[in-house]
Amino acid sequence: AELFKKGLGHKHACRIFEEFVKNHPDSGYAAEALQTAFELAIEHAESGWGKKRLGELAKRFPAAPLAAEATYLAGVYLFKSKKNDEAEETFEKLIRNYPERERVVVSMFMLGELRLRRYEGPDYEDTPLQDAKKQFELLIASYPTGAYAVKARKRVGDINRELAKRDYQMGLYYIRHGKPDSAKVYLESVQKEYPETEYARKAAKTLAKLLEKKDKR
Known about the structure:
By secondary structure, this protein is mainly alpha-helical. The protein contains 11 helices and no strands.
């Protein structure tokens, strides 16, 4: 295996080290062999075989020192490949199995991003937005400082603007269709739930005009 590692192919060396650990778990060399297998897979995380081995190694040897890093890199690969369900499962596994590792906070952020990917636009349900918002808020509550907390707060702000826009547009829809009472519900909701957005100000103006028009009748 050392010869493979040095010049005859890291892919083959990784598999040989992995099989050595599987077949000789009580050997005095097992820990070193396992560490080397993880290191080789991580070194080639952007290659096809490296990505595959990362997931397999983490699954087969979850207690290994580099298992959390391997799981994270496997999740990143799946995320970039738009294999959203598998990526979500991988990041959730990392958070569940390695709660004290440094990759947890970025994994929580990636979960929020994955849930945002499900959002198809204003003509579709807002469940993905709500799910993503909850995930980002969980990150902020768990890790209130740091770069990912800053990123998560920005995402929450963006999501709130989109949710406010949806409700505001629903208010306008009901006004156009002659249903002022229904419009009022949505416009008031925008002001109450998303007061920091520009749509709250628009809703206030639209609602004032709506009530003024109603009073003149």
